[in-house]
Amino acid sequence: MLENVGRDQLRESHVRHLEGKLWELRAKSKEGGARGFCVTATGRRVVVLHVFVKTSRRTPRQALVTAKERMIQVRPWPS
User: Fold this and answer.
1) Span 14-59, pLDDT tens digits
2) Which residues contact 22 (CB under 8 A, 6 or more apart)?
């Protein structure tokens, strides 16, 4: 859906802005929910940093730390 529609066209139930260029993607299936963190780059480029299976109401702190560390390493946007 992200690839076909684009991040700008997705609604709050599928994507949520966290901070700066960091966004949370949400996916549901019969088996449960999954979350992913991504950053937007120039144009329509999106880099998925970390994905995890949602097992509790709160996002695990380590998942967010991992995404932020990878965001620094990838840095897909101009300075």
Assistant:
1) 788 888 888 888 887 777 788 889 887 766 677 889 999 888 888 8
2) 37, 38, 39, 67, 68, 71
> What are the angstrom distances between the C-alpha of 6 and each of 11, 14, 38, 49, 69?
11, 11, 13, 17, 24
Two tokens, residue 77: 């946007």
Count CA atoms within 13 Å of residue 31 on its CB side: 3
In sequence order, the 6+-apart residues with CB closer than 8 A to the CB of 2 are 10, 15, 25, 46
Given CA atoms 59, 60, 65, 71 in this order, what sign does their dihedral have? Answer: negative
Q: What is the pTM of this model?
A: 0.71
CA separation for the pair 38, 36 (Å, rounded): 7
